[in-house]
Specification:
alpha/beta, about 325 residues, eight-stranded parallel sheet
């Protein structure tokens, strides 16, 4: 396992991060507390140090499982969690208000059984809380020592740029990490975010690098997976990673390209898809969402896969997305 600098900070994170969203969930895609604990220990033994959870995952049970699993190895872990989404039925049990951020951090610390969190993300934009209120609260939890670094997830580019400018103007601690969906199927963020992240010193921690498991090379066109076949089979059609969102010619062309490259390099399709994400600029640590030990082992093997220029180009071509205005206009006419 190699380590990469997280954005402009001095914090080093493993190139793979262990995502724990399904730890403690109910249903077919869940990982039991025992399986989750075993995977955490295996990940740490493999040299990983970056573990990602959130208060909302399994209603807080994911944080509890993570906290117990890392208790004896706490100093080896860069622990990331998130605050924003509902954790109760009350009107103030969600959002990015000062009230919810401060109470949410304290609740996460209790569930995690620790006195600090290395990385705290705002999980999504809050349309009603003034941005300066959120940023001041985040600055306070860093200054207090409860949180060491800050990250952002699911912000629009203008929202992120505004937050960074405001933090600089007010002398607040700024974001050093950004968490967004990114994979060969979903490359939407490249045009709007990559230059912004690099210019502002944020490291990208992509989630769903296998497109909800679609890029694992185990599905057949026209045959919808059953509910017990993991995320693609169990997600509603409205979800970001729903099966219906993968059913187009482009997705299946990408699947074919991944399988061909995998055959060429002697790796699994999942390893190739992860290796492609690891090779992209701005990426600091790729979040793998294993549900079983077998999936985790396959994901860990991706760090040994080296894709040459020819294979990267083949995958880039199969997954290319059209440039949009005004980026297209700038590329065509803005050169000097």
């Amino acid at each position: 396992m190699e380590y990469r600098r997280l954005g402009r900070s001095g914090l080093l994170v493993s190139e793979l991060a262990l995502g724990t969203m399904v730890f403690g969930e109910d249903g077919p895609r869940a990982a039991s507390p025992e399986d989750g604990t075993s995977m955490i220990h295996r990940f740490l033994d493999a040299g990983g140090n970056h573990i990602d959870t959130a208060d909302v995952y399994a209603g807080g049970r994911s944080e509890e499982i993570v906290g117990k699993a890392i208790k004896l190895r706490r100093d080896d872990v860069v622990l990331a969690t998130k605050v924003r989404f509902p954790m109760g039925a009350g009107p103030n049990d969600q959002g990015s208000s000062r009230h919810h951020i401060l109470s949410g951090v304290d609740a996460s610390l209790r569930r995690l059984g620790t006195d600090h969190i290395e990385l705290l993300y705002l999980h999504c934009w809050d349309p009603i809380t003034p941005l300066d209120e959120s940023l001041r609260a985040l600055d306070d939890v860093v200054t207090s020592g409860k949180v060491r670094y800050l990250g952002v997830s699911n912000y629009m580019p203008w929202q992120l740029a505004t937050a960074l400018n405001m933090a600089d103007a007010m002398g607040f601690h700024r974001f050093v990490a950004a968490q967004y969906q990114y994979n060969l199927i979903t490359r939407d963020i490249e045009e709007d975010f990559f230059d912004l992240l690099e210019a502002e010193g944020l490291g990208l921690a992509p989630w769903s690098p296998l497109a909800g498991g679609f890029l694992a090379g185990k599905y057949t066109r026209g045959e919808r997976p059953s509910e017990d076949e993991g995320r693609l089979g169990s997600q509603p059609d409205t979800d970001e990673e729903a099966w219906v969102k993968r059913q187009d010619d482009r997705s299946w062309a990408i699947d074919a390209a991944v399988r061909q490259v995998a055959s060429d390099v002697g790796a699994s399709p999942a390893e190739v898809a992860l290796a492609w994400v690891l090779a992209q600029r701005a990426v600091a640590s790729v979040i793998i969402g294993a549900r079983t030990m077998g999936q985790l082992e396959s994901n860990l093997a991706a760090t040994d896969v080296s894709l040459g220029a020819e294979h990267l180009a083949r995958l880039d071509e199969a997954s290319a997305v059209p440039s949009r205005y005004p980026a297209r206009f700038i590329a065509n006419y803005g050169k000097r």
